[in-house]
Amino acid sequence: MKIIDITKGEMIQRSGDLTSKAYIVTQELLRSYLVDEKGKEHIFTFAPAGWIVADNRLPNTPCDLFIDALEDSQVEVYTNATDLDPQPQKLLNRLAVLQKRIIMLMSATAIERYEHFEEIYPDIVQRVPQKMIASYLGITPEALSKVKSQRAK
Amino acid sequence: MKIIDITKGEMIQRSGDLTSKAYIVTQELLRSYLVDEKGKEHIFTFAPAGWIVADNRLPNTPCDLFIDALEDSQVEVYTNATDLDPQPQKLLNRLAVLQKRIIMLMSATAIERYEHFEEIYPDIVQRVPQKMIASYLGITPEALSKVKSQRAK
DNA sequence: ATCATTTATTAATCTAGGTTAAGCGCGAAA
DNA sequence: TTTCGCGCTTAACCTAGATTAATAAATGAT
Q: What is the pTM of this model?
């Protein structure tokens, strides 16, 4: 394991890569995202300090995700996801987070997803542009702006 | 670990339960699903033989999912998810599956999601009613019926 | 075989959110 | 200080999918 610094905007993994590492964020903030066939960007995860970022892929399949830094950051690099977790509880927590995400995507409206996000990640709401939050929620920035102004009434 | 038989329709876990177990399916087919605040049912996972079914939840939080059998089935019961996986690769695979699912929900249309499902789970398409597939895809049975008939042209 | 229940299809209408486009405020660079 | 670029908002219009409802087909129970 080694530690590396990443400057804001720097990319440490690309979609299509055939090898991927796992990172534990020690400082600041990264994100992982994908670009779909229509060319649209979707944020998969925000990763503040203490979180893991990695592309969770089946063996021998290419990466889907890009990973870059939203602020000047620092991460611990692990050569693969399996040796990153002596205690499986960390992996189970990640499963729990992804499960909740799927449940939200399937059952909640745009404004409900936003309010849930505000509750769970109040600090991130302050640190990233609103259009990135929209991207994470699976809606357009225009739609997010609209539902927020409707809620205000 | 012990093995139990489950008859079609039998429920082995309920949303709100404060304890949950993990199951490896040895025979036939189970599903996990949730009921949202509007009372609508959403299938979270189909679990054919060889798969794991479990509610992936953070420690000390109640279950979100119901788990029941779609056919007469048999499972191995593990008292908790951590002792179910000596080899972490299984957990990583589950992460990969959930990640793909989120990507599909965020970036694909109804018919694209259906075609992806057909590719990945051809056997399940044959075994469960179409409305359950719609529920898994995050759309209504009517919408699935519509896009399939449009595709036929 | 008959009846009841569940599932699938189709069609009409409605709505959340997408698309396009214009205008505005603000911070960074010259 | 101006200007450029970016992020946010608003508004008009459009579309995928939801809702409701009616009918038909399949499945299961007696």
A: 0.94
